[in-house]
């Protein structure tokens, strides 16, 4: 599950994420990683309007795994990322990316149709400023979308337990609950929806992987507060 990066007072995303830049994409090449990416991308593409020509900004683009998929859909994609090593990988993918952080987005007001942050908000020490900046740069009636790690998912619980015993970049993260994210969005945006994906355990057996689509379908219908990735969307007022 990809984690982007964002800077804020008290954190150094370059230190946090440069150390993991070369390892970021390798997990998605594993059987479990490929399935997670498939489910997360499917949820994003079903949550966001990305017809050809849509101007999309990704905050904390990371290595650009998701951004390149939106670009393939015909979106005009730009991104900001504080980690030099991650920016370099995204640039090699042909993405337009520059230095920037979520708490001070380096674009004018009302610049984008869609503003997305995938697993970046969790690492911000100023989340309200982060969201306000996203709302500022999206156009009136535009969409703001944030994907966050879920506090009450199997992945979230596993990562927090592991963090008690060894150093992890997730020790710096604030995991969100379904209701917390929905309340947070509702303070700044209209037409708020929170969806989720990935309902398997972090180290699924071959037996579970073969049944991952069935588990995913059931989870999206009946277990929305407990998916590993929560995706909140909302519309800016006109």
**Mean of residue pLDDT values:** 91
Strand order of the largest sheet: 3-2-1-4-5-7-6
CATH superfamily: Vaccinia Virus protein VP39
Can you give the helix content as a percent range?
A: 25-40%
Helix-strand string? HHHEHEHEEHEHHEHHE
Radius of gyration: 17 Å
Specify the number of helices.
10
> How many beta-strand segments?
7
Q: Give the assembly state of these chains.
A: single chain
Shape: globular
Termini separation: 34 Å
> What profile does the largest beta sheet have?
7 strands, mixed
Q: What are the segments in which pLDDT stays under 50 over at least 5 consecutive residues?
A: 7-11
What percentage of amino acids are in beta strands?
15-25%
CATH class: Alpha Beta
CATH architecture: 3-Layer(aba) Sandwich
Structural domain tally: 1
CATH topology term = Rossmann fold
Structural class: alpha/beta
Please, could you describe this protein's structure?
This protein is α/β, with parallel strands linked by helices and 238 residues long. The chain has one domain (13-235): 3-Layer(aba) Sandwich (Rossmann fold), CATH 3.40.50. The chain has helices at 13-18, 21-24, 31-47, 65-72, 84-92, 127-137, 154-163, 178-186, 206-210, 212-222; strands spanning 55-59, 76-80, 96-98, 112-118, 138-149, 190-197, 229-235. A seven-stranded mixed beta sheet has the order 3-2-1-4-5-7-6, with helices on both faces.
């Amino acid at each position: 599950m990809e984690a982007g990066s964002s800077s804020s007072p008290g954190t150094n995303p370059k230190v946090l994420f440069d150390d993991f830049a070369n390892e970021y994409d390798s997990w998605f090449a594993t059987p479990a990683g490929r399935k997670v990416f498939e489910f997360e991308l499917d949820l994003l593409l079903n949550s966001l309007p990305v017809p050809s020509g849509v101007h999309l900004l990704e905050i904390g683009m990371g290595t650009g795994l998701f951004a390149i998929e939106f670009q393939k859909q015909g979106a005009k994609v730009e991104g900001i990322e504080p980690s030099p090593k991650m920016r370099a990988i995204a640039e090699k993918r042909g993405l337009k990316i520059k230095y920037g952080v979520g708490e001070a987005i380096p674009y004018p007001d009302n610049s984008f149709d869609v503003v997305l942050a995938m697993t970046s908000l969790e690492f911000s020490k100023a989340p309200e400023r982060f969201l306000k900046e996203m709302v500022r740069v999206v156009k009136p009636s535009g969409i703001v979308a944030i994907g966050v790690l879920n506090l009450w998912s199997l992945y979230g619980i596993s990562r927090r337990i592991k963090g008690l015993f060894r150093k992890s970049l997730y020790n710096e993260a604030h995991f969100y609950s379904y209701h917390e994210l929905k309340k947070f969005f509702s303070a700044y945006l209209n037409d708020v929806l929170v969806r989720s994906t990935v309902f398997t355990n972090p180290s699924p057996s071959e037996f579970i992987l073969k049944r991952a689509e069935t588990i995913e379908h059931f989870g999206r219908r009946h277990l929305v507060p407990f998916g590993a990735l929560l995706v909140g969307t909302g519309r800016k007022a006109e």
